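Researcher: Sequence recovery benchmark, item below. Answer with residues only.
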C-alpha cells in the first residue's frame, strides 16, 4: 500500500478531535490510531507517526506526548506498544538516556553569591563532552559484573568491539561522565527554596555502538526477508529470532549502564559539594531516577507487550518522575496518574521546536546571555543550539498533560553544566 504524504495537507483531513481531554487529536490514517496530547506538532512528526501506525504489530494505539517532535524513524516524545517485535531505531542510540534528581537539606541562602566556583568544581570531577575519567571512577566489583554480562554479547557479536577504538577501556572510563548535546547537570531551587541536584545523561559511547549495530542488523533482516516498510528506520526485530534475543539482552545491559552512569555522577557531585564551603548537608530521601529512551516489558490492556518510550517517561499512578524544561526555564518533579490511554506515560521534557542548525542560525550569543540570565552556565556559540527558545514552552507542555501527571515540585536552575 502506498503511504499517504501528510506534509502540507490540511490537518482536518486526517484528524478527529477527542472529547476527553487532554488528548488533543487522534490521527487515524494507519492500521492503528495515534492519540496526540498536543496541537503543537510539525508535519514531519505527523508523517512519522502515520508511518509508525501502519505497522502490523502495534498494540491498540500509539501515544504522542506533548513534547512530540520529529526524530529518526520514530518521533521523539512517542510511546510505542508492540507485540512480538521491537524497533531498535525507536529506542534510539542513547539507550537508557534519562534523568536523576535528589533534594538536599540546603536552602538557597546556603549557596554562595557567586556560583562560578561551584560550577567549576563539579566540572572538575565529572568529565563532560567527549572527555572521560583518566582512571576507573566506580567500584571495580560493579565493573566486573557489567563486564561479565557484556562479554556474553560480545562472544556472539565480536563486530561490536571493532566499531570503536579502545572499546573495553572507554566504556569503563566513561562510567560517571556526562556527554554532550542536551545532557546536563544542574543545581536547582524549588518553590520552597530547597536545593536540588539534577542531571540528564545516558549510556554514552557503548550505548551508541549497541544501538547503531542492532539498527543495522534489523535493516539487513528486513532486506533478507523482503519486508517493505514505509521508512527504513522502522526496521524491526521479530521476537523469537536470534537477533531479537541478543538485542533484548543488549538493550537491558545498556539501560542498566545508563542508570549506573547517572548514579555515579550523582555520587561524585555530592562528594564534591560536601568538600566545599557549603554548610554540612544531608540527602533528603531517595534519588528520583527515570529512563526516557528505553524499552520494557509491561502489561497494558490485559496484554504483556514491549513498550518503547522514545522521549517519554513512565507515569504509573504515584510513580515519581522528572520533566526538565531547558537551560533557562523551569523543570518539574511529578507523580504519575496512571493514565491508561498514554500507557501510563508522560513527556520527557519540553521537546525541541526547532533543529540545532536552525537554532544556531537564528540566535546569537547575546540571545543566549539574555535567555539564561541568572543562571551560572556556558554562554558561548557552542551551546546556542541549546538556547531556551529552541524548545517548546514548558508551561504549555505541562498544561497539555495535566491528566497524566501531578506537579509536586517546581525547580529553577541556578547552575547548569553542559558538555
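Model:
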Amino acid at each position: 500500500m502506498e503511504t499517504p504524504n501528510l506534509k502540507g495537507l490540511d490537518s482536518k483531513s486526517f484528524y478527529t478531535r477527542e472529547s476527553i481531554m487532554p488528548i488533543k487529536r487522534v490521527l487515524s490514517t494507519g492500521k492503528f490510531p495515534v492519540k496526540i496530547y498536543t496541537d503543537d506538532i510539525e508535519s514531519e512528526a505527523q508523517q512519522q507517526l502515520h508511518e509508525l501506525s501502519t505497522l502490523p504489530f502495534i498494540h491498540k494505539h500509539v501515544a504522542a506526548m506533548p513534547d512530540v517532535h520529529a526524530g529518526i524513524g520514530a518521533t521523539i516524545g512517542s510511546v510505542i506498544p508492540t507485540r512480538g517485535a521491537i524497533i531498535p531505531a525507536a529506542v534510539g542510540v542513547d539507550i537508557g538516556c534519562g534523568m536523576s534528581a535528589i533534594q538536599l537539606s540546603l536552602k538557597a541562602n546556603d549557596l554562595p553569591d557567586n556560583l562560578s566556583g561551584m560550577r567549576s568544581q563539579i566540572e572538575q570531577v565529572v568529565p563532560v563532552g567527549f572527555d572521560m575519567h583518566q582512571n576507573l571512577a566506580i567500584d571495580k566489583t560493579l565493573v566486573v559484573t557489567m563486564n561479565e554480562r557484556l562479554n556474553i554479547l560480545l562472544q556472539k557479536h565480536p563486530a561490536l568491539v571493532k566499531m570503536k577504538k579502545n572499546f573495553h577501556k572507554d566504556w569503563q572510563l566513561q562510567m560517571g561522565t556526562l556527554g554532550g548535546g542536551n545532557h546536563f547537570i544542574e543545581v536547582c531551587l524549588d518553590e520552597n527554596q530547597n536545593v536540588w541536584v539534577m542531571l540528564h545523561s545516558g549510556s554514552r559511547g557503548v550505548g551508541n555502538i549497541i544501538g547503531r549495530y542492532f539498527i543495522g542488523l534489523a535493516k539487513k533482516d528486513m532486506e533478507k526477508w523482503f519486508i517493505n516498510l514505509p521508512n527504513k528506520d522502522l526496521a524491526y526485530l521479530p521476537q523469537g529470532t536470534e537477533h531479537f534475543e541478543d538485542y533484548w539482552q543488549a538493550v537491558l545491559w545498556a539501560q542498566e549502564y545508563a542508570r549506573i552512569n547517572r548514579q555515579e555522577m550523582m555520587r561524585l557531585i555530592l562528594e564534591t559539594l560536601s568538600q566545599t564551603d557549603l554548610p554540612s548537608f544531608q540527602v533528603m530521601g531517595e534519588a528520583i531516577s527515570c529512563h526516557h529512551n528505553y524499552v520494557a516489558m509491561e502489561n497494558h490492556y490485559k496484554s504483556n507487550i514491549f513498550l518503547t518510550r522514545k522521549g517519554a517517561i513512565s507515569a504509573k499512578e504515584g510513580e515519581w518522575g522528572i520533566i526538565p524544561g531547558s537551560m533557562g526555564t523551569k523543570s518539574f518533579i511529578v507523580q504519575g496518574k496512571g493514565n491508561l490511554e498514554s500507557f501510563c506515560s508522560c513527556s520527557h521534557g519540553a521537546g525541541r521546536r526547532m533543529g540545532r542548525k536552525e537554532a544556531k542560525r537564528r540566535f546569537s550569543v547575546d540571545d543566549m546571555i539574555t535567555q539564561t540570565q541568572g543562571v551560572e552556565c556556558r554562554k558561548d556559540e557552542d551551546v546556542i543550539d541549546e538556547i531556551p527558545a529552541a524548545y517548546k514552552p514548558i508551561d504549555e507542555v505541562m498544561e497539555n498533560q495535566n491528566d497524566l501527571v501531578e506537579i509536586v515540585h517546581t525547580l529553577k536552575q541556578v547552575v547548569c553544566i553542559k558538555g
